[in-house]
Amino acid sequence: MELPAVNLKAILLVHWLLTTWSCLVFQGAYAWANFTILALGVWAVAQRDSIDAISMFLGGLVVTIFLDIIYIGIFYPGASLTDTGRFSAGMAILSLLLKPVSCFFVYHMYRERGGERLLCIGFLGSSQDHSAYQTIDSSEAPADLENRAYVPRGY
Taking a C-beta distance cutoff of 8 angstroms, is the pair 107, 58 a contact? Predict the structure, then answer.
């Protein structure tokens, strides 16, 4: 399945716009967390070949998904919800809903830059380390066993 070409700059622009609108109501820690992650995204744009920049941006997006759930749950304006507050909360929720999609695209950008799989669960995929693998039919001994001498132990 071919993924649509999504530019990292477009992802940053959408999340920056939604974050600035969300900060009308959700200030403080919400703003710090999201703008810090957007700064990591700018770093990932500036250094196109850096695996560290894109992986930190991806990790930050994942962390802010959980933080945004907490911030919206705690600081959602309840009874006195003005039109501005409703708009700001809606933009925060929309940003939260778009973050997993952004993580999906950023993960594929991470893989394109040469990053390895972040999650390698044994029963879901193949193992990465095949260096010590030897078939049953092979007559050659493994390299580490060839250099060992058999020393009988006394009773």
Answer: yes
pLDDT at 44 over 80: yes
Region of residue 135 (phi > 0: left; psi between -120 and 50: alpha; otherwise: beta)? beta
pLDDT value at position 11? Answer: 93
User: What confidence score (pLDDT) does residue 126 get?
Assistant: 47
Residue in 24, 18, 122 with CA at minimum distance from that of residue 81: 24
- Give the model's pLDDT for residue 125: 45
Alpha helices in the chain (DSSP H): 8-22, 29-46, 51-75, 83-112, 143-146
Dihedral angle at the C-alpha atoms of 47, 119, 107, 54, nearest 10 degrees?
-20
